Amino acid sequence: MSGLVDTWHKYYIQYETHPEVDEFYQEVGLLHAQRMFGQDSFPGDTKFGGEDFNLYRETVGVLIGWSLKHMSFCTQLMKKVPYINPRNIITVPQHFDDKAKYLASALTIDTQAARQALQTLTLTRENKQVHCVAPGNFVAPALIEAGQGRVIFPVWGCTSHPFIFMLNELKRKHRSDWDRAVDMREVLFRRELYELFQSTKFLQNRQKHQYKDWWFDCN
């Protein structure tokens, strides 16, 4: 990676990536996302705004991978050029449409779906009152609107709690889908709970206490 990165206008960063590097960090990002709180909030095929929850989940993984890759390139540049200020290279502005195109390519989806997924991870003038209303309870976003059509891509927002911000935004943008999905979680919970107690002992105990049929009916 050291040979792929260089300065831009002396104090900033530019680099050419490589398919092997891209593939490695995408896998790392997806694995990292699977360990985060909130990634299993809904089944993958649950719909929000017409798109599967899997899409939003995979988007987080890709953004994490991009963030870790960018940090690695920054580290290599700082080793090569000691006078580089980390604040000038770690968080840089980008065009939102470019970000959507890159995501669409990474996940093999259409650009509109990529835009929709990225919007659930972006702090904007429209949603700032929702996400910034409670002092001390702020969750860093993966993207922050920074002018017309431009965003900044903070590393902390991608690697801390991106799913919490995303879930709050899904609830705000797609309330009817959210309410429907939350209702289904109760059904799934009862089904999974019942599947844990399949032995004869528990079934006999059920009959003994004459539990209500609706509690055990998972169909």
Quick tags:
2 domains, 219 residues, alpha+beta, four-stranded mixed sheet, disordered C terminus, two-stranded antiparallel ribbon, single chain
Strand content: 5-15%
Strand order of the largest sheet: 5-8-7-6
Specify the structural class: alpha+beta
Q: Tell me about the biggest sheet?
A: 4 strands, mixed
Count of distinct strands: 8
The amount of helix comes to: 55-70%
Topology as a string of helices (H) and strands (E): EEHEEHEHHEHEEHHHHH
| Low-confidence runs of at least 5 consecutive residues | 206-219
What is the averaged pLDDT score?
88
* Number of structural domains: 2
Helical run tally: 10
Gross morphology: globular
Terminal-residue CA separation: 54 Å
For the CA atoms, what is the radius of gyration? Answer: 22 Å
Structure report:
There is one protein chain. With 219 residues, the chain is an alpha+beta fold. The chain has ten helices and eight strands. It has helices at 19-33, 53-80, 96-107, 111-119, 128-131, 155-159, 162-173, 175-196, 200-209, 213-216, and strands at residues 5-8, 12-15, 47-48, 51-52, 93-95, 122-123, 143-145, 150-152. A four-stranded mixed β-sheet has the order 5-8-7-6. A two-stranded antiparallel ribbon has the order 1-2. Helix 3 (96-107) crosses helix 4. The model is unreliable at 206-219 (pLDDT under 50).
Summarize the structure.
By secondary structure, the chain is an alpha+beta fold. The chain has helices at 19-33, 53-80, 96-107, 111-119, 128-131, 155-159, 162-173, 175-196, 200-209, 213-216, and strands at residues 5-8, 12-15, 47-48, 51-52, 93-95, 122-123, 143-145, 150-152.
